[in-house]
Design a protein that fits this description.
With 201 residues, this protein is of the alpha+beta class. The protein has a single domain, classed as Nucleoside Triphosphate Pyrophosphohydrolase (Alpha-Beta Complex). The strands form two sheets. Strands 1, 2, 3, 4, 5, 6, 7 and 8 form an eight-stranded mixed β-sheet that branches. It has a three-stranded antiparallel β-sheet with strand order 9-10-11. Strand 10 and strand 11 form a beta hairpin. The longest helix is centred in the last third of the chain and has 16 residues. It is globular and about 45 Å long.
Length: 201
Amino acid sequence: MPLERLANFFSTYQPETKVSTDTVRAAVLCPLYIEKGVLKMLFIKRSQTVKAHKGEISFPGGVRETRDFSLEATSIRETEEEIGVKESDITIFGGLDEVNTTTGFLVSPFIGAIPHPYPFKLSPDEVESLISIAVGDFFEPRNKVDFYYFNGRSLQPQLAFNIDGHIIWGATAKIMWQFLELSREHDLFAKSTSQSFHLAS
């Protein structure tokens, strides 16, 4: 199973960290699940009432709070608050390299798995809807598109995906691209190893 290989790989992967004193620390969860034999990644479409990144497609997550004993804990807490997935139903595999956003956040991404189907409960103040995309769709060259972001002074080229009309760009696209590149490099979607991995239930 792809989840077994991903779990085995990310349990030993050492993410690249960044040192910064002028950014806000945040964390996101990249939630994977299997639906009818297809590996899928779950995203959220942010509401129009959040302070930053209104209406954008992102991973569930947010700013680290003083009560969070780690950034991994931040990703889990925010996922439960935003889409209602309980901590006991989240299996963290490991982390990806940290990513800076254009809005002053330093984001620590965590790869994990959630059950499917699941009784999601969206936070109406933060999340407009859920978007589920097959991981395989990100490997299709036609879905990688040119995208330009106006930073107030000039247009800046950005990595982006357009899948079924969903535009994924910015830090979310960078995180997804990193996941795809590691998957290619280490053949993470090949036949499963003999090692087993049990998801939280």
